[in-house]
């Protein structure tokens, strides 16, 4: 028998050096300064943040200690996180004056489902940014092509991805294909937390509603712009009893990038492995003699598309470094002209 609404607190207590679970809870919703938390036996809404702490200290997914005082509940202490899902804050990334910072989307996530909608414009660089932004240890990444009832578009997207990245695993899903919902359900782990992210209108809430058999929220009425009436504005966690898993729905985003250092390993492991056998350490895999990567292309082990995506990635990385250096230089100049 599954425990009713098991938000993972018992498991957390078992795996971490904590004595009791009586005042431990998990943040399951965040609404500006107010939180909803789940304890071992109840859900508490409208929880505030204790004195000297702020809403930057707690996110959905966090395990916390809480307290009751003067008729209100307060979050008192953050317990150790397993991981953090974050991206660059979108407004900061655009402004030269504001230092971009990482914005936390949720914490303690085991599986991340990245939705790409078949009816929205697809580019490889979008997929690459998603994968590189969220790639980290102890996090399983899953690519879902949603609205797969757009059959032609879905086929095209999958073909584009596979001709460049033959090893990336892709699942397609549609609310009009019940068996595809079941396939997604089958990939959820018991006792684990899965988060669904993607651009606005890709169908995150719809998928979660179908997974949890909750049709109450009106995500089905189609608007002419295809974005749907119901837009998620808060991040929240739901319990799926059938698989004993936790599902996090999150607001859609416009752009994705990260201020963290990225590593092309998730997409280019094969090329990076081959590069170890190049004659020159600083081989650009462009024209050099003794290049193991070019040889692999000639031997048909690697497609030219794969290599050209890699070159593009390298170029961007170098451009990024140059940009960072330039910013640094400008800052220094400013400093010296002031002093
Ligand atoms: N054709 C088709 N439409 C879908 C599918 N899933 C969702 N939609 C429609 O797409 C629109 C957006 O769906 P939502 O579930 O609200 O999307 P969301 O990703 O949660 O959007 P935000 O909350 O704004 O981030 C709605 O009109 C849905 O009816 C699908 O599988 N096929
Ligand atoms: Zn080489």
**In percent, how much strand structure appears in the residues?**
15-25%
Strand element count: 13
- N-to-C series of helices and strands: HEEEEEEHEEHEHEHEHEEHHH
Shape: globular
Bound molecule types: guanosine-5'-triphosphate, zinc ion
Task: Describe how the helices and strands are arranged.
Layout: H1 9-15, E1 24-31, E2 34-38, E3 43-49, E4 63-69, E5 72-78, E6 84-88, H2 90-94, E7 102-107, E8 111-117, H3 124-134, E9 140-146, H4 151-164, E10 170-173, H5 178-186, E11 193-198, H6 204-211, E12 235-240, E13 245-249, H7 265-275, H8 292-298, H9 304-338
Parallel strand pairs: 3-5, 8-9, 8-11, 9-10, 11-13
Antiparallel strand pairs: 1-2, 1-4, 1-12, 2-3, 4-5, 6-7, 12-13
This protein binds guanosine-5'-triphosphate (GTP) and zinc ion.
Zinc ion binds next to helix 8.
How would you describe this structure to a colleague?
By secondary structure, the chain is of the alpha/beta class. Helix content is 32%, strand content 24%. The chain has nine helices and 13 strands. It has a five-stranded mixed β-barrel. A two-stranded antiparallel sheet has the order 6-7. The longest helix is centred in the last third of the chain and has 35 residues. The radius of gyration is 23 Å and the shape is globular. About 2% of the residues have low confidence. The structure holds guanosine-5'-triphosphate (GTP) and zinc ion. The site of guanosine-5'-triphosphate (GTP) has 24 residues, from helix 6. Zinc ion binds next to helix 8.
